[in-house]
Design goal:
Spore Coat Polysaccharide Biosynthesis Protein SpsA, Chain A; alpha/beta; elongated; seven-stranded mixed beta sheet; five-stranded parallel beta sheet; single chain
């Protein structure tokens, strides 16, 4: 029986502070020039999932659906499960249960990525007839746990140390429906509650550390980490020589982008209509659509669509440049540093 997918979106969007009034859901922020949620669907599709249930409140799903409609794959069918307003995570998961039925399923948070393929966990779950394999971030553990699949028998006792960072779970046939029926609310990700319920009922539950799990809830550093994970998965692309460029490693350049007398070292992506001139673009950098980079050095950064970075005079590292923003070096006198920094924004001067 093929796996179904369940992608869960939080109820409350994140509102960027400072000079922006744009309200965005974290899962819809771009990494590697695509929304995080699109990369999540890629991960599920790679595991043979052909049907995904998208779960969230009505308000959340309005924006989510508009974004996922742009996900281009004829191999993946999307269905939507709507939970009540201000629903807790477990209630949101329960809304998806009727659409999952008795099928095995992979539950994945919509705002995070894993630094590994899921097939090793999916395969082990099937081989050992496990009811649930729960992947948790290592820092979420305060006590011992089973790590990997070395144990001869899966743990079915109370699971110690399952806290907030349960981002991915693989459920065996019928297990997701059973866990949702047994649960009666909870906190944290929701998956931890379902895991504890299954364990209390004597089901075979395995807990694994996933040190490479990263999710974005509004912290810019986390967004850069998710960007790194997404770029690590891009496919190499051949680039024509010319225009005195040097391109190394895994680099994706949109056919409408222009790169002149520049060096790009992958993994990196350059979006539609972007322009890069006399610049160095280093590893783990995403250059958004219609962005303009001239006389600049940038690495491990996200340059959002429509942004401009011009002759800044020093290398930008681990930086986020927002949509339509302009970062430039002003040569007028008197020389001074002039900043427009909004509430909650961060500027590091080195």
């Amino acid at each position: 029986m093929p796996h179904k997918g369940v992608v869960v979106f939080p109820d409350a969007p994140w509102q960027n502070g400072g000079t922006s009034t744009t309200v965005r859901m974290p899962a819809l922020e771009d990494v590697a020039n695509r929304p995080i949620a699109h990369h999540v669907l890629d991960a599920l599709l790679a595991e043979g999932v052909d049907e995904v249930i998208v779960a969230g409140t009505a308000d959340a799903l309005i924006e989510v659906r508009a974004s996922l409609n742009r996900y281009r794959s004829s191999e993946l069918r999307l269905a939507y499960a709507v939970s009540a307003p201000n629903a807790d995570p477990v209630t949101t998961l329960r809304a998806a249960a009727p659409l999952v039925g008795a099928a095995p399923c992979i539950v994945h948070a919509g705002d995070g990525l894993l630094d590994a393929r899921l097939d090793v966990y999916v395969g082990a779950a099937a081989e050992q007839s496990l009811d649930l394999v729960l992947l948790c971030h290592g820092s979420a553990f305060s006590g011992p746990s089973s790590n990997g699949f070395a144990a001869d028998e899966p743990s079915s006792a109370t699971i110690p140390g399952i806290l907030c960072e349960a981002g991915v779970g693989m459920f065996g046939p019928g297990a997701f429906r059973e866990a949702c029926q047994a649960s009666c609310g909870g906190t944290a990700s929701g998956l931890d509650v379902l895991a504890q319920r299954l364990s209390d009922d004597g089901k075979a539950v395995e807990v694994c550390l996933a040190d490479g799990w990263r999710h974005y809830r509004g912290n810019p550093r986390d967004l850069l980490e998710v960007n790194r994970l997404a770029l690590d998965l891009i496919t190499p692309q051949r680039h024509p020589t010319g225009r005195q460029n040097r391109i190394e490693g895994r680099v994706l350049i949109h056919e409408t982008a222009t790169v002149t007398t520049s060096v790009i070292v992958g993994p990196a992506v350059v979006g539609e209509g972007a322009s890069i001139t006399n610049s160095y673009i280093g590893p783990y950098t995403s250059i958004g659509a219609r962005a303009q980079i001239e006389g600049a050095e940038i690495e491990r950064s996200i340059i959002s669509p429509g942004a401009r970075v011009m002759h800044v005079g020093t290398r930008l590292v681990s930086s986020l440049v927002g949509r339509g923003a302009h970062v430039f070096r002003d040569f007028s006198l008197p020389r001074a540093m002039r900043l427009c920094v909004g509430e909650g924004d961060e500027v590091a001067l080195c």
